[in-house]
Amino acid sequence: MNKKGREGQQPFPVRVGLMVKHRSTAWTVVLFLLLSAGGLGAARAQDSLPDLIKRVLPAVVTVVGFNAAGKVIRLGSGVFVDPQGHLITNLHVIKGVARAEVKLPQGEVYPLTEMVAADDKADLVKLVVSLPGGARHYLPVSGARPEVGERVVVLGSPLGLERTVTEGLVSAIRTLRDRGEFLQISAPISPGSSGGPVVNMTGQVIGIATLQVRGQNINFAVPGYRVLALRDGPPRPLPGLGAEGKSLPPRPGVNVPRPRMQVR
Question: What is the pLDDT at residue 19?
């Protein structure tokens, strides 16, 4: 009787064991699918960054300023913000120059002679570039305050290296004494980056790269809402062009100076 009872109970633990095994296998499959989905999502996010850069880079230019002898004394970056050919850069990039030129990514060069708005505290200037047919590539400027930790890219010509892209985060939003509010960013910048756009992951300009301080990737950008606050006025000569408001005759091209590099 006991033997038969035990024999009658033998299949039961076997079935339980099979159920546990099936459930374990099912959870393993579910876990694998979840991890796979996460990996695909990360891959897609990473793949979208090159696409974003290809889309926004054509709107970014190099700005070069010359003295009366034709020597390069200013080097910076800029970005078109509307189809009319209005260009945003830093005011210090074009201050005191005898002639200024802008070089497009495709290599075309156009003179800069007039500005329509400026903000000394924000170190911003809006310039007029007479492009045939207007600006084919331009970026929208966002007036929203970015979140700390938001991912950004900076585009420009650091040290004359055109079409350079760096990546980082919005590290903080700070008020600088007598200068107003700025974005602190971790994306690396160098001389020549000034005036380049700080772009979010949707392709909007949320800031203009402006200055750096000593330290590891402690850089500052003028927020996009300060760019939008610029009030257009009648076109006027660039500062430094002289009382008559005339620049030196434009040259057929511009030779952007390259940095000296040492291989160690």
Answer: 38
Please name the helix (run of DSSP H) or strand (run of DSSP E) that holds residue 66, with its range, or none. Answer: strand 60-66
Of the pLDDT bands very low, low, confident and very high (cuts 50, 70, 90), residue 166 is: very high
Catalytic member of 77, 171, 193, 194: 194
Q: Is 194 a catalytic residue?
A: yes
C-alpha to C-alpha distances, 135 to 68, 87, 139, nearest whole angstrom: 29, 10, 10
User: Residue 121: is its pLDDT beyond 60?
Assistant: yes
Distance (Å, whole) CA 220 – CA 226: 14
- Catalytic status, residue 193: no
Catalytic residue among 82, 92, 119, 137: 92
Domains and CATH numbers, the chain: 57-137+230-237 (2.40.10.10), 151-228 (2.40.10.10)
pTM assigned to the model: 0.77
Residue indicated by tokens 């120059």? 97
